[in-house]
Aryl-alcohol dehydrogenase (NADP+)
Amino acid sequence: MEYTKLGSTGLDVSRICLGCMSYGTPDRGSHPWTLEEDAARPLIRAAVEAGVTFFDTANVYSDGTSEEIVGRALGEYAPREEIVLATKVHGRMRPGPNGGGLSRKAVLTEIDASLRRLGTDYVDLYIVHRWDPHTPVEETMEALHDVVRSGKARYIGASSMYAWQFSKAQYTAERHGWTKFVSMQNHYNLLHREEEREMLPLCADQGVGVTPWSPLARGRLTRDWDAGSARQDTDEFGGTLYLEEDRVIVEAVASIAARRGLSRAQIALAWLLGKPGVTAPVVGVGKEAHLRDAVAALDVRLTEEELKELESPYRPHAVVGFS
């Protein structure tokens, strides 16, 4: 395992972050393909044993049961001080007013609920899952600052939004002397590179760590284009992210993997890990082989010719994944 600083902070994180959306009760929430606790625990343990110290979940994943599973497993398999634990706020957790979003009431309610489910008194990184257009940014940033000042979070981060929104939030925090975001968890992979236009240069300039979600494009980069999966067949959100024209990139990944004698996942992750500014991809692991591929990708170096083969077929996409 390799370790690096999260942006310009002093916080060390593993270069592979275990994404824990794959773990949860299938009939809770909107992810029927998730793994129950008995199946999830060995994978979390294997990640700890492989040197992964960075774990990412969210309150909304499987209606809070992802946090419960992750909290119990990490409490057993690793000392709390060695783990960098991230969770998120924004998604709707209950019907009716104030059941979601980034109001002061929602933020302060949801951090306490997440801590109860995780079985810890603080998270290392508290992430706003999306932008909330219905709440003044001053209200959100002050509430997040209070979460940090109370000791319930060590740092705060953000996820998919426009660069102007992220800049506005950072400017608001700096203007008032509040805590600023130290990380951006964005949608970035070989099939969706629109973040290279504004968000990635902004993060590089401001010393913000980048932890891309869906680094393997919901698994599309790991199998033939026409091959399905239980997740792909039931993932309504994922079905909006990629286009038929992306097939040629998937084929390029397969071709390079075959020539190198490596898995397609290793090639796709090696490309992402090699991008300047990328701290740690958030990798979902449903089998131990997925974890082995992610760790092995740290040692893969792509040639200039291979990079051209992977990148040249890309065509501009509409920005997706912000909602």
